[in-house]
Design brief:
- With about 625 residues, this protein is an alpha/beta fold.
- The chain folds into three domains: about 170 residues, Beta-Lactamase, CATH 3.30.450.20; about 150 residues, Reverse transcriptase/Diguanylate cyclase domain (Alpha-Beta Plaits), CATH 3.30.70; about 230 residues, Alpha-Beta Barrel (TIM Barrel), CATH 3.20.20.450.
- It has an eight-stranded mixed barrel with strand order 15-16-18-19-20-21-22-23, surrounded by five helices. The chain has a six-stranded antiparallel sheet with strand order 3-2-1-6-5-4, with helices on both faces.
- It is elongated and about 145 Å long.
Amino acid sequence: MLTAYVALIVAVTYLLHNIESFEMKLKDLLLNQSIDMIDTTSTKIIDRMLIKDPNFVHSNLQDSEVRLKNEKKLSVLVNDDITALYMLFVAQNKLFFLLDTGAVDRGEIGEVFIPENEAYFEEVYKDKKKRTFIQKELGHLGFTLIKPIIQNNQTVGYLVVDYTQKHLSSLSAHIDTIVEVLVVFIFVLMFLLSAYIIYFWYSNYVKYKIYRNPKTNTLNKVYLIDNVDKIDFKHYYVALADLDFFKRVNNLYGQANGDKVIISIIQSIASQLRKEDMLIQYSGEEFLLLISKDKMNERMFQHLLEDIRILIERLNFNIADERFSLTISIGALMNTELEKSLQDCIHKADTALYECKHNGRNTICYFDMTQTKRVYREKLKELIESDKLVCYYQPIRNLTTRKLHHYEALLRIEDGENIIFPDKILPDLEDSHLYSFLTKRVLEYNIKTLRFDPKMRISVNLSADDLVNDTILSLLAQNADLSERMFIEILENKSIDYKKVELSIQKLKLFGYKICIDDFGTGYSNLNHLLNLSVDYLKIDGSIIKEIHHDRRAYSIVKTFALFCRQNDIEVIAEFIDNQDIVDILKSFGVQYGQGFYFSKAKPYAELDKEHL
């Protein structure tokens, strides 16, 4: 792009520098075009004269009758644009009048003709080709055509046609207009090309800024999303690294200090890599390493990962006069040439990383299909990617009227005749890339159900991490027309970035979605959820609900929650209702909705009573 632009600049500079020469050539071209008819007709007339008279010059000199006839023939060429049309002959290197069509100021036979531009006649004599030239010396003339008269392969004379200044001015005006238009066109072209190049450079600069962490200059996940199909993954070893328990750092010291730690760690990892390697910040504390196989065998790759692990382990950080260190877990895949896509490579590296986390962390694991747990996790991945994922639906009812309010979608995976429940699935997917993929498939499944059944109302469970996942948010935004019939339940998380989650909630609310806190009362952070997040519903966990009719503390907790929600315009949903006594107590607290086996167990869509229809 830059080379082409420089070449164009050089070409334009050359053109502008030689614009006068170009203008003269253009004038010469137009002059020749303007005399085209005269040129063609005169050639025919002269050819007939020469054929009839082998001694053309001598006959015209000696015979006045012949001369008058020939002048009459030439006079048909004269028009308003021509001031003079005459013939000259050559004798002793001088020019003399032979024929003249003019009535006034005509050249007499044998009269000497002294040209103002003798060089042009010499060129015509030598080349035996016509010439046109502008009469700069004679202000009353415009331009002149000199045409050789050739007999026996010798130039014996010239046909000379003088055109008016008016005709030249008309042509010059056209030429000047063409030149001006051309110059304007060149400048417009230069402007447009410059604007395009500036836009191209700016776009690439913007992409560069978007694709990189400005504090570390390392690539981020946006780059990976945009270029996943362009990366020749088979030429890389793939590793996924995750800082162990890093969320504790954010919780204890704040995200700003956590970001400083991340920057330091990224710089440390980058220091171990070569130019041909790639370090991508996959998420906040998770990093994707693409290590080029060029001059790097498997053993060297293993040593590199171990060096990175030891380097991170030895780093010390000081925040608020407290000194601490961190460790890193790394999952890797070496046989990338056997995989179909980079995403498959990342999935397998993620599976190995999961193994590290469940083996004590601060270690490196390599994907191995011979290990049972990894095979099971890969099988889960295959089941999720196929059509084995389904949702069962449990009704949520108004406790007073028993009228159906909506259904909660509960995940199931069909493995042949066996049904795999969430408690058997999610622990094996926790902290993995596959978890967000599963969420996306659950959302897609329920979106399809809502579009099939226009009266169905469904709540779907999302984690706090899901709510800050751009892919999940984009999917919800694209289906915002379903927001009145789709509720979002936020699952308990070990750690939540409340600012980011609240920002996502506000975006979803703009689309019309209602937000619910799920399993409230089970985790230490639940009260923080309630205080920091803008929610519409609060679902009290069943482990508390099922105790309220015989446990005073459970009774008091639920009553307090219900009062708080009533005062803050938050609707309450109670889980695990299994008898009428619990219903009566909940109604006395002002709890409006409930779900549980007392009303119905979860069923596939096909088995629902369809009372919502």
